[in-house]
Amino acid sequence: MASSTASALIFGGTKLAATFRRRRRLSAGATSAAGALFLGFAVVLDPDTV
After folding, report:
1. Which stretches of the chain drop beneath a pLDDT of 50?
2. Three-state SS for 48?
C-alpha cells in the first residue's frame, strides 16, 4: 500500500511539474499564493511580529 501511494505521489508530482513548466503564469500565481499563506500563518502565530 505504501509503495502505491509513493508511486502516485511521484507520478502526480511529475505531471504537476510539467504543467508548471508549460504555464509560467500559473506557476507565478501558485508561488504567490503559497507565500501569502505562509505570511498569513505567521500572523496567526504571532501578530506582534508583522
Report:
1. none
2. helix
